[in-house]
Design goal:
single chain, Immunoglobulin-like, 201 residues, alpha+beta, globular, 32% strand, 5-stranded mixed β-sheet
């Protein structure tokens, strides 16, 4: 029997963030592995509970208090409808337990109007590729899918669409001046993809 998949693999599987080929391999493995079935059922239940939260609207006072905790950053300088960066984990001190981690991860939160774009950019010392996981959230009328394109100096590098929870995933080799374009009702919202540094890059 092949080796077990990790919890992170099953989390991405239930969130529909795996590639079709990897999802097919995991489905085949699931049919013959009791241990991975337990992991799958656990994260499927967690995912189901998280999906129910989409129907929850927090009180207005709570939203205002949460927003007041962030210090707004200056808008980015490149053209178009640009989302505003309101949080960047690169500006936060790392805890002692993660300073020796083999992965390099950067978490960012952007805002454009009533929409929030949450990005996680992660690289690994053993690979040149970078993983970009994102979620687009808006308070009213979340579409079933939103087109998202990764762009560089030479134009579009790759494109994908969000799932029903506004999540998307891309893997790519980093280059300068990368940004994503989010197609919202024929308006493209631009969000810069930051560079991350590490032994593999």
């Amino acid at each position: 029997m092949s080796k077990h998949f990790t919890s992170e693999d099953w989390i991405d599987y239930v969130r529909e963030l795996q590639t079709p080929a990897q999802a097919a391999r995991m489905k085949d493995h699931l049919d013959q592995c009791d241990e991975c079935q337990k992991s799958f059922r656990l994260w499927a239940a967690v995912n189901s509970a998280a999906a129910k939260d989409l129907d929850y609207t927090p009180p207005g006072d709570a939203v205002r208090i949460a927003r007041s905790l962030f210090e707004p950053a200056k808008p980015q300088s490149f053209g178009g409808l640009v989302a505003k960066l309101i949080f960047d984990s690169a500006h936060q001190p790392m805890t002692a337990g993660v300073r020796g981690s083999v992965s390099i991860c950067r978490q960012l939160l952007y805002q454009y109007g009533q929409r929030f774009i949450d990005l996680r950019v992660e690289g690994h010392p053993t690979s040149k590729e970078v993983s970009l996981t994102g979620q687009i959230q808006q308070s009213i009328g979340q579409p079933e899918s939103i087109p998202v394109a990764l762009c560089g100096g030479q134009g579009t590098i790759q494109h994908t669409e969000t799932n029903s929870r506004g999540e998307f995933h891309m893997t790519f080799v980093p280059e300068q001046d990368l940004h994503i374009e989010i197609d919202m009702n024929e308006k493209k919202i631009r969000v810069r993809v930051p560079e991350i540094s590490g032994p593999g890059n």
